Amino acid sequence: MRSLFILLFVAISTSYAMPGLNAALEEKIEDVNADLDVMKKDLEQKVRREVEIKPEPVESWTGKWFPQTPTEAPKTAASEPSGGGMGDGNNMYRMINSTCDDGKTNLTVDWDKSDFDSMCLEGDYLQPDSTLKATLEQEYIPPLYVARHVCMKSTIPYNQSLPTFGPHRPAWAKYGEYVYLPPQRWLHNMEHGGILFLYHPCAAPSLVNKLKNVVKSCLYRHVITASRLVPKERPFALMSWGWRMLLPTADTKLAVEFIREHALHGYEKTHKDGYYDQLLIESAKIVSTPDDQQLCPKYKEI
Fold it and tell me: Which of 156, 38, 168, 199 is nearest to 90 (CA)?
């Protein structure tokens, strides 16, 4: 190959001294290019022969498989809407089945069904602190970020106590109010554009009910649950995909403004109801339209 480049250099140098050799030079360049193409193809074939393609390893799992091993085909799958899935190479509809996640099997991977998460075991309800202000926080989500859908054979840890985005389960929750719903579920609802209302189990019931009524009358795509992830000093949290607002008390105006500003902006935009319904208290009702074309219509003065 080195001799080809030397020959080409000599030919170019000669052409400046002897213009009459231009035609011969062009012919020689064509020959060199042809030789280089052949050498390139030979090199590509050699690389293909020497590179070993290894299959992706099965994730480590010490529990039992339900009901098949990973090599077996799933028995059932959720129906996928016409037009395909979300197009992210991580199709949630094809993952909603008894092998990966059907919203009913192996649920203790995310939650051990402890009453600690949903009941005020301390005895006294929290008193609002009038000196505290609400906080509004945005988590940066890279423009090309696509959240992974993770099967129930693996745990999903989070580095944020109240995550506003991240990996989650394929089967999202049915919209409505729950006794308790783990983050691995409600994150997916937020990705679909839903609003999440979390309250500390020891928050004053009258204030909890006030914000529940606001959220339920603002949009269909809502999820409500008690959660000890919410800090006691600001025991109410309104969240959407990428956004988090913590409230020291039940502020209707701030809640409505947050919903109008941040609802319906998730990466996966669909109003299709979910599959998970463990400890569902009350299903969400249509407020304006199934896809929430009008947010918080009851609060025209805000």
Answer: 168
